[in-house]
Amino acid sequence: MFTPRKLAENYRELVSSIGFYPSLLAITFFIFALITTAIEYAAPIRDFKAFIGIVLVDSEENARTILSTLVGSIISLTVFSFSMVMIVLNNASAGLSPRVLPGLITRKSHQLVLGFYLGSIIYAIIMLINIRGMGNGETGIPALGVLFSLLFGLLSLGFFVFFIHSISRAIQVDNVLNDLFKNTKNEMRDIVTKQQEQPIEQFPDFSGWYHLPSTEEGYFKGVHSDKLCQLCEQHELKIYIAVKQGFFTVKGYPFLKCDKDLSAQEALRNALLSCFIFYVEEYISDHYRYGLTQISEIAVKAMSPGINDPGTAVKAIDMLSILLIQRLDIYDVNYSLKHAKHEPLLYIHEASFDELLHDNFTPIRNYAKSDGYVMVNVLEAFKNILFRSSGNRQATESLFKYLEAIVDDVRGTITNPFDRQRIVEMLEAIKKIDGARGEALIIQFKQ
């Protein structure tokens, strides 16, 4: 039985496959080839072929030679292109982060190019096997099909040049970071826009709601909000997702809350739980948190001895600071107003500012705490966030609490007087934002 959850998992697995769009294009070219062979010898097409006869082949030998050459050449392009994809994925996993692989695999432009190659091969092969005797000693040459095959071959050369250019850019860390930053920022902006258009003055008290235990184990990645909200509207329910997206759940874990006790309604509980999606991959389109995680992991990878690229780490840190500033505009509880008449039927726990701060800067802090250049830039990033969080007391408290952890680390690991002076100067800049707590950080560092 195909439940919404199973359908979503199968759909995600299908569209994230590197062969999804190539398969669709191959089928499209196959159908087009059948249509071409069906109308090749129709009277109107014969008249059209006579009109453009100067660009059509006129002998069986030339047709076979052209089609055979095209098939062999495009197969070579296809093999080389697939090899390049594998090299890119391997380099991205080794030099960036394994978490960026799903985004590279599902890049539509690369899949469409590979699909065009496969479709051109199939089309040319079908034209090749349709060179046949017509009776009375005549030979049927699919001249129009050969012309299309030539055009597809020329387009394949153009797509090959585009593919090489695109794939070479795809493994450049600056381009990967820029794409992650842009996509993550867009996802956050969409949430901010929706919340500003449909603001909520006060959220319910979820502490008294009833728990719904999970029937699946795995990483919670999403929900079919339309289906879930329809069920909530039908049964007059409200649902609160108590865990953040990406949280690993086990069977029996109470990751949902409901405003009504459903312990005696097993069918309804199962229907509600079937709306939730569990899988392993991390796509920014599912939640902006995954983009932050991937940027943070690229920064950590850049600081590894095998790569040793502090410049990339600093760029990633600056991007994280901008994204965390934008996170200040998002409520700690997200919500969906689909099918709702007055107030939301679905509430979603957002990863808090404090959680994002800890999850994304802790790996950087632990791995780069002995690098004066990187840690000065981390402090500068915190200074910039503090400027924007002045109206958010809770975020400011989280930032200074984390700054204490940073200062505690660099105090014992950075011993060079020049580097220590640069850190003091950055702490002096933070002191201008909050004199008392900034001074406390300086005293802590000098102890």
Features:
single chain, 447 residues, alpha+beta, 5-stranded mixed β-sheet, 3-stranded antiparallel β-sheet, 17 helices, 10 strands
Fold and architecture overview:
- It is a single chain.
- The chain is α+β, with helices and mostly antiparallel strands.
- Among the domains are: about 160 residues, no CATH class; about 80 residues.
- Helices cover about 65% and strands about 10% of the residues.
- The strands form three sheets. The chain has a five-stranded mixed sheet.
- Helix 4 runs antiparallel to helix 6.
- The N and C termini lie far apart (about 65 Å).
Task: Give a nutshell description of this structure.
With 447 residues, the protein is an alpha+beta fold. Helices cover 65% and strands 8% of the residues.
Give the SSE layout.
Blueprint: H1 4-15, H2 20-39, H3 43-51, H4 60-95, H5 101-105, H6 108-129, E1 132-135, E2 138-140, H7 143-170, H8 173-197, E3 210-212, E4 218-223, H9 225-235, E5 239-241, E6 248-249, E7 256-258, H10 266-273, E8 276-278, H11 288-302, H12 310-327, E9 333-336, E10 346-349, H13 353-368, H14 372-388, H15 393-413, H16 417-431, H17 435-446
Parallel strand pairs: 5-10
Antiparallel strand pairs: 1-2, 3-7, 4-6, 4-8, 5-7, 9-10
Helix pairs in contact: 2-6, 4-6, 4-7, 6-7, 8-11, 8-12, 11-12, 11-13, 12-13, 12-14, 13-15, 14-15, 14-16, 15-17, 16-17
